[in-house]
Design goal:
- The chain is mainly alpha-helical.
- Helix content is 52%, strand content 8%.
- A two-stranded antiparallel ribbon has the order 1-2.
- The longest helix is centred in the middle third of the chain and has 21 residues.
- The model has no long low-confidence stretch (mean pLDDT 84).
- Keywords: Chaperone, Mitochondrion.
């Protein structure tokens, strides 16, 4: 019972921290958290309760590390609120000249290019085009 109450309180604190200043998101988050806990209020299975507590902890971590707020300042300009816990990845500059190779076929995958790696189909198409000229 103590763990459930702790998870409930932690989710509400996380909601207040992550959605700080956004009244709509705060209200929707409160409603969803309360609704979820009320819906499972009569659960008596210890295993199910532990699974739900684990889910609440995972949701808490997801909210803290992967949600950012963006506020529109002007046309095309947004101010982001990124917290110290927000996951940051390396920013790799896009290379438009990069050659992206097709993935290799896995064992058991069906050949979608026809027989002979598509060579037979390519030859047939070339012949049809030559006749149409």
């Amino acid at each position: 019972r103590r763990q459930v109450l702790s998870a409930f309180k932690k989710l509400h604190r996380t909601r207040q921290y992550v959605f700080q200043g956004d009244a709509n998101a705060l209200a929707a988050g409160r409603l969803k958290i309360n609704e979820s806990f009320l819906q499972n209020r009569n659960e008596s299975s210890e295993d199910e309760i532990q699974k739900m507590i684990k889910l609440a902890q995972d949701v808490d971590l997801e909210l803290r590390t992967n949600v950012i707020q963006a506020q529109k300042k002007e046309d095309g300009v947004y101010e982001l609120r990124i917290t110290p816990e927000t996951t940051r990845l390396d920013n790799v500059v896009f290379n438009p000249d990069a050659i992206i190779e097709k993935p290799r076929r896995q064992r058991g995958d069906k050949n979608t290019e026809g027989c002979c790696g598509g060579a037979a189909m390519a030859a047939l198409e070339a012949e049809v085009q030559a006749r149409n000229k």
